[in-house]
Amino acid sequence: MSRRVGIAVGLATALALSGGWMAFDAARASSHKSDFKLEKARVERGDVTGRVTATGTLSALVTVQVGSQVSGTIRELGADFNSPVTKGQVIAVVQPHRYSRLSSLFDQFCTCFNDADAVIVAPVYAAGEQPIPGADRDGLVSGLKARGHRNVMALEKSEDLAGLIKGIAKPGDYVICLGAGNITQWAYALPGELEHLGEKAA
Description:
- By secondary structure, the chain is an alpha/beta fold.
- It has a domain at 90-201: Mur ligase, C-terminal domain (Protein-Tyrosine Phosphatase, Chain A), CATH 3.90.190.
- It is built from six helices and four strands, in the order αβααβαβαβα.
- Helix 5 packs across helix 6 (183-201).
- Mean pLDDT is 74; it is low at 14-19.
């Protein structure tokens, strides 16, 4: 046997063995299928997005009650200067709000009630402030009188308001409560208190 023949026989034998092994390996792989499926995808750039789904009732973490305060000058109350209290006239009840506000606007406070037929001045609603000399209830009463108002009264406490009103008001008069403290509660309670005083008098 020549050298070429030997080489050819060796190559043929190697090819035969390789083919047999590949066929055997393929058959073994097909008989043992994996539970996992391999998927391929191209790598891409993009944003990561997360979604959260929830059910229920929305409620605020913090609830804030918002109110308002109004201050200014009364332009007109529908009465002549220094006119006596008669039917249909105006009685103003004022509760100054804060000593600092009364002090800085004292002259305006002393003149803005000139068109009211009567003025009842309540103690200042301090709102946490310390008293300022002269800028208090008695100071405002004196200031109103000094500027010409002839019917000004000081209110000692809210419980006295109904009795004071009953003593000067007539049917058909208007009682206007002005302020930014707790005078709103006084105004709501006043009709019932006046009615109660009327029942006691009867």
